[in-house]
Amino acid sequence: MKKLLAIFCLLIASTGSFVFALEPQKTINLHSDGVYILSIDKRPMDIQVTNPRILEVTSTSDIFSTSSQLVMETQEEGISYITYKQGDVTYTIKVLIDNQQDVDSSVIELDSIKDITKDK
């Protein structure tokens, strides 16, 4: 629930200024156990993920623009492909989850809230 609230607040703050748009057919690098937002120019349809064990993807948008965001939650290292449609065009994004590489600059990385009760 806290992640959804953080995403909602971020989307409200960034409405109208999408400078992190991704060109299609690109490989992006992410780290495991993180949440990332990727802005795209139109709302995606029929989102498919080839390896949902390591990557979960949802789409968010607002009613005032045609822009959208893909919210990606990574679990562990590996490779996964995100495929989605915009009209008649199909786009594929290769996602490399590797903790040794830098996170791609086209995504916004969300902070996760550490559960201090687990450390006790």
Question: How would you characterize the overall build of this protein?
Answer:
Helix content is 11%, strand content 42%. The chain has 120 residues and is mostly beta strands. The chain is globular, with a radius of gyration of 14 Å.
Shape: globular
Distance between the termini: 23 Å
Major sheet characteristics: 4 strands, mixed
Which sequence of SSEs, written as H and E, runs from N to C? HEEEEEEEE
The side-by-side strand order for the widest beta sheet comes to 1-7-6-3
> What share of residues are in beta strands?
35-45%
Amount of helix: 10-25%
Radius of gyration: 14 Å
Average per-residue pLDDT, rounded, comes to 81
Mind sketching the topology for me?
Elements: H1 2-14, E1 27-30, E2 35-40, E3 45-49, E4 55-61, E5 68-74, E6 78-86, E7 89-97, E8 108-110
Parallel strand pairs: 1-7
Antiparallel strand pairs: 2-5, 2-8, 3-6, 4-5, 6-7
In short:
The protein has 1 helix and 8 strands; from the N terminus they run αββββββββ. By secondary structure, the protein is mostly beta strands.
What key phrases describe this protein's structure?
120 residues; 1 helix
